Amino acid sequence: MAGLKAVSTSNSSPADRLRQGHALQQQGKVTEAGAIYSEVLEQDPRNAPALHLMGVLAIQTGQLQPGVDLIRQSLAILPGFAPAHDNLGKGLERLGRKDEALASFGRVIALAPGHAEGYANRGRVLEGLGRFEEALRDFDKALSLKGEPELSLNRGTVLLQLGRFEEALTAFDKAIAMGLTHPIGRFNRGVVLTALGRIEDALVAYDDAIAHHPDHPDAYVNRGLLLEGLNHPEDALASFDQAIAINPDQVEAYLNRGMTLAALGRNSEACAAYDALLVRWPEHAEAYNNRGAVQKSLGAPEKALADFQRAIALKAGDPNLRENRGGTLQGLGRFDAALEDYDAALALDPQSERAAFSKATLLLLQGRLAEGWPLYEKRPRRFAVPALEAGKAWREPQTDLTGKTVLAYDEQGLGDAIQFVRFAAQIEKRGGKAIVMVRPLLVALLENLKPDVEIVPYSDEPPAHDLHAALNSLPYLLNVGDAVGAASPYLSADPARIAKWKTVIGDKSTRIGVVWQGKTGGYNDDERSFPLAALAPLAAVPGVRLISLQKGEGEEQLAELPKTMTVETLGADFDTGADAFLDTAAAMEPLDLIVTCDTAIAHLAGALGKPCWVALKQAPEWRWQLGRDDSPWYAQMKLFRQTARGDWDSVFTAMAQALAQRTS
Question: Cα–Cα–Cα angle for 162, 167, 169, nearest 5°?
Answer without folding.
Answer: 105
